[in-house]
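Why this split exists: single-chain examples teach little about how molecules sit against one another. For that reason, every record in the complexes split bundles all components of an assembly together and asks for one structure covering all of them. Below is a record exactly as it appears in the raw files.
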Amino acid sequence: MEILRKAEIQQCASEALEKLDDFMAGAEENESLEGKFVFPEKIDDLVVDFLSSQKGQCCLLEGEPNCGRETILMKVLKKYSIDLRVINVGYAAADPLLQESLARENEQDGEYSVFLIRDADELISGHQQEFLYTMTDKATSCSWLVFFSISRQNFAQNLEKRGNSRIPRIRVTFDQQTPTFDEYCTAFRQMIIPKSSEAEKSTNFQGFYQEMRSDTWLRDFYELYNFDGLKKLAAMILMEVAMGGDQIPTQKTVENALCSLMPSNRKLSILQDQTLRSQCVFLCCHRLCRNRRAESEFLTPRTTFRTVFLEYKKLANLHYAPLNVNNDVFVFREIEHLIEIGLLKCEKMANFSNISFRKIWLDMDALTVEKSISDVLKLPTTVRDFFATILD
Amino acid sequence: MMDSQDIIRLRALLFNDSKSIGHVHVFGENGSGRSEIIRQIIRESDESWICTAGDFLYADGNMKLLLESLAKDMNFKTRGDKIEEFFCNLYESVEWPNPKRRKVLIFLDNAQAVVNFSSPILRCFFNSYKCISNMTVRFVTSAPSEWITYQTNIAIGHSPIPHFHIKSPNVEQCSQLISNALPNVPKQFIRFAVDLLFAHCKSPNTILQIISTAFSNYGEREKFEANRAGDCIKKAADYKLGLLCNKNQESTTSSDIIHSFESMPTSMRYLLVAAYCASNNSALTDRRFFVKNHGRDKRSEQKELRAEVNRQLRDLEPKAADLQRIVCIYESLVILHNDRSIRGFDVKNVASFFF
């Protein structure tokens, strides 16, 4: 019975996972969301106009990164089986020949093309505006339909005047007004249980969805990410369920998926992985920076390589002899390692002849560190006491 | 080192068909076998995927080099650093197991080196496959720390990248691994050594090296002698980890340094003294090294002493000195002591002394 149930859930999950690829949160025809999202039709109209009149046109696609600008555009173009030519701005900047070849190309063949300029925000910087002029001029002189994909609202204001005058007046805003939490939950449900699928009929799978109790933990996620992040989360959960081997999906599977996307505890787990020695070096740094006054209001409290070494020596000599080292090099090496993995930060450009006086500071939430001392890190008792006592 | 459930999860993460998961980042401490685990999983990959591996550290900020190494791995040719062209060529020239669903996994090791690439180029690299609709591309990166440590200019609310954490091995797993590798070393010795070293080093490879050196010094014994074993291990670990366990060792290390100074070649000793002089005195006072009687003949001794005190107050710490200054002071020191036989070397040799 259990096995059957598990198989059914896995079956449904993999089906849902397949359907997820085509799912567009917000763009779906949906009763609760209807009327809010009209951009596919707008683009559709533009393309139809263009096809009938063959008149060159430019258009801005405004929206946050990963809100589905390209996906919708591609879908619309696919409907009319038109090829899309995509240009990355970063790439165009790296290759000066590209702009030239584009400028020359259109005079030879009179056929129409549709362009998408990705990351057009970066066209703002002075010498790259040239590229914008080329594209807008060519669009009118021959039959080009050019889409600029941008994410900044003030794109036009930051351009020079000659750029500003050429900036397309047509714009499609993909501004999914930040969804409410209820909309977010509905979208999540739709991702897990897609419409007209096996999953919709399966009571077992519905039961699994209930067991997830998504409303309890989804809020944290909602505060961090938009629909695109949510889609990834749904994909992770479905993937864990569908390919989870012979284990029955539980709350734990969901936690795993959530954990791999939420950035909250990664630093702590990295710290846990360190050797006792480098944990102690890190905590020495924490102990020195904690409750200290910063040099100015814009700086976090800092300490130096040398003070950390002295503090570490104090710990080793007075409290826990096995940690002792015979040279400061070894402590400095640990500090550098901690900087590499991003737990500590250090002054960059200062040209020090002597490494001991370089400034370092913590790149991790001090409260989390504080809490971790007593339980998560499993330190020897004397070491724990050393770090738990507060300096005045 | 990882339990089977974790391996299944990682495999599912790497080889699922969802297009939403375009980039997976695996992180874990160096020496915990992070990349090796991924390689093993990829080796046993299912047939429908094409897998390839590249290395950010090898490419060293050069996109052309990275693309070429990936292309070579998949047996097709790409020219230059054109990322779009690369994905186009990839789409067209590779022999796909199933041309209807083209799936490729690109494993990129040492992702900590992405800091050497400029961010527009990287963004282009990770996104430009999206315009080819009939191809699934999954990037798998591997680095000691989370992705955001290396790519700091990601905006808040940027879509999350799935992370997978590979834990470093614990004491039991580590000693198990080592006793597999060294079958003739008694388990008791290994366990003792791992317990001793684990606070300082968690990498099984490093511990393995130390144990094999230590055991050859320790030799076969009938009964386990903890003191002797401890000494052997500490001695073997000294160079790599700098352990210090009893206090009288401290005095020996400082005498080691003096001893080592005496054992240096004469020219090297002169050079060290010259470097010391150059870095502890300002260049303005260098004159005294090159004139007779230290240039002191016109000043009274008292005046000189006062000047010396002032100098010391000003320059508390040594500063970086020009190599040229050091060499000049060295030469004059050698002339002063009439040791002509060791004069005349080129700057390259000097530099090799320092490193």
